[in-house]
C-alpha cells in the first residue's frame, strides 16, 4: 500500500513495495557498492516511482563530505552591481553542480554575522563574501576551515583569497576622463570614510587632480551611503555651495540619487554638471542621460571566484581584473564619440 504523500516516504517504504531489503534499495539509488540483478533493480525503480520517494540529498551529500552548496553573503542585494554579481555567481555555481545560498545582510553588520554563522552551520562547501563595511569576519570563517573568497579589496595583511579590481586606478581613470573634457573643478560623492574601498576611490580621484595640477578641495568631498538616498542627500548638500563643473560618484546608485537632486534644481547632466560614476551596470546604459561609468568584468570575476572555491587548497591568492570605462552621455561625450571604436 502506498503511504499518503503528507508523510515522508523512506527507503523502508520503497523496500516494502518492491519486496526487497533496504540495503538493496540503497544499492540501486547509489549505483553500488554491490551489483543488483536487473529484474530486482527495475522493481526498486518502479517502487520509487509509485511511492514518490525522493532521496535525502543533504544526508547523502554529508556522507560524501560535501553539501554541494556555496554560501554568498552580500551587503544589500538591492544594489544593481551586487545583484548582477550574485546572478553571475549563481550561474557559475550551477554550472559546476553547486547550489548558491544567498545571504542578504541588508546593510546590517549584525545580520551579516548571523548569516555567516547560519551558512557555516549548514556546512556549505565554501563562502563568497562581501562585507557591509569592508571589515569582514575573517577569523570566524578561518576557524572553521571553510574555503572562502572575498569579492572585494581587503587588508593585504589578511593573506586570504580574493578577487578585485584596482579601485584606486579605476577612480583615477574616471576622474582623468573628466579632466580630459576640460573640467577643472571636480567634486566627489563617496562612501563612508572608514571603508577601504571609499579610501581607494578618494585617493584615485585625488591622484588624478594632483597629476593635472588641479586643486584638491576637501569641501568637495561628500561622504554618504552607497544608496540612491545617499547620493540624493549628498548632492543636495553640494548644490547649496559653490558648484563644481563635474562630479565623480563612487557608485551607480549615488549617481541616480544625484540626478534626482539636480532635476529638482532644474539642472541636467552634462549641461549644468558633468557626471561619471563607478560600478555601473546595464542600468547606466538605459538611464537618461546614459551614464559614463567604470565597469567591472562581472562574468569573468564570478567564473574565477567559483573556480577558486572548487580548487581550494588553502593558499592565499588574489586575482586582480582589468576594469573598463563605458562611455555615456553624462560626462559630455557626444553620441558620435560614444559609438566610435
UniProtKB/TrEMBL annotation:
Residues 9-64 form the HTH lacI-type domain. Keywords: DNA-binding, Transcription, Transcription regulation. InterPro entries: HTH_LacI, Lambda_DNA-bd_dom_sf, Peripla_BP/Lac1_sug-bd_dom, Peripla_BP_I. One of its GO terms (molecular function) is transcription cis-regulatory region binding. It holds the Pfam family Peripla_BP_1. It comes from the Bacteria. Coiled coil: none annotated. This is Bacterial regulatory s, lacI family protein. It comes from Yersinia rohdei.
Amino acid at each position: 500500500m502506498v503511504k499518503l504523500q503528507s508523510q515522508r516516504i523512506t527507503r523502508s517504504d520503497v523496500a516494502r513495495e518492491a519486496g526487497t531489503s533496504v540495503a538493496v534499495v540503497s544499492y540501486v539509488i547509489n549505483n553500488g557498492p554491490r551489483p543488483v540483478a536487473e529484474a530486482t533493480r527495475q522493481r526498486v525503480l518502479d517502487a520509487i516511482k509509485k511511492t514518490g520517494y525522493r532521496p535525502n540529498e543533504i544526508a547523502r551529500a554529508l556522507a560524501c563530505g560535501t553539501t554541494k552548496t556555496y554560501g554568498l553573503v552580500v551587503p544589500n542585494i538591492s544594489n544593481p552591481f551586487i545583484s548582477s554579481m550574485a546572478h553571475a555567481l549563481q550561474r557559475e555555481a550551477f554550472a559546476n553542480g553547486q547550489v548558491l545560498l544567498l545571504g542578504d545582510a541588508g546593510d546590517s553588520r549584525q545580520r551579516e554575522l548571523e548569516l555567516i554563522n547560519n551558512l557555516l552551520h549548514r556546512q556549505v562547501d565554501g563562502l563568497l563574501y562581501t562585507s557591509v563595511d569592508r571589515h569582514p569576519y575573517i577569523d570566524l570563517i578561518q576557524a572553521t576551515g571553510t574555503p572562502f573568497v572575498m569579492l572585494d579589496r581587503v587588508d593585504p595583511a589578511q593573506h586570504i583569497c580574493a578577487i578585485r579590481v584596482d579601485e584606486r586606478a579605476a577612480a583615477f581613470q574616471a576622474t582623468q576622463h573628466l579632466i580630459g573634457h576640460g573640467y577643472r573643478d571636480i567634486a566627489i560623492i563617496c562612501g563612508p570614510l572608514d571603508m577601504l574601498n571609499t579610501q581607494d576611490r578618494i585617493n584615485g580621484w585625488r591622484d588624478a587632480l594632483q597629476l593635472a595640477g588641479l586643486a584638491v578641495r576637501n569641501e568637495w568631498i561628500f561622504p554618504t551611503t552607497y544608496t540612491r538616498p545617499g547620493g540624493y542627500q549628498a548632492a543636495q548638500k553640494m548644490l547649496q555651495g559653490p558648484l563644481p563643473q563635474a562630479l565623480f560618484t563612487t557608485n551607480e546608485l549615488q549617481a541616480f540619487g544625484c540626478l534626482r537632486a539636480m532635476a529638482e534644481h532644474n539642472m541636467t547632466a552634462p549641461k549644468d554638471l558633468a557626471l561619471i560614476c563607478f560600478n555601473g551596470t546595464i542600468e547606466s546604459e538605459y538611464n537618461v542621460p546614459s551614464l559614463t561609468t567604470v565597469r567591472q568584468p562581472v562574468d569573468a570575476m564570478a567564473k574565477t571566484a567559483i573556480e577558486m572555491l572548487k580548487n581550494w587548497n588553502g593558499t592565499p591568492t588574489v586575482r586582480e581584473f582589468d576594469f573598463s570605462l563605458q562611455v555615456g552621455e553624462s560626462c559630455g561625450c557626444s553620441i558620435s564619440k560614444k559609438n566610435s571604436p
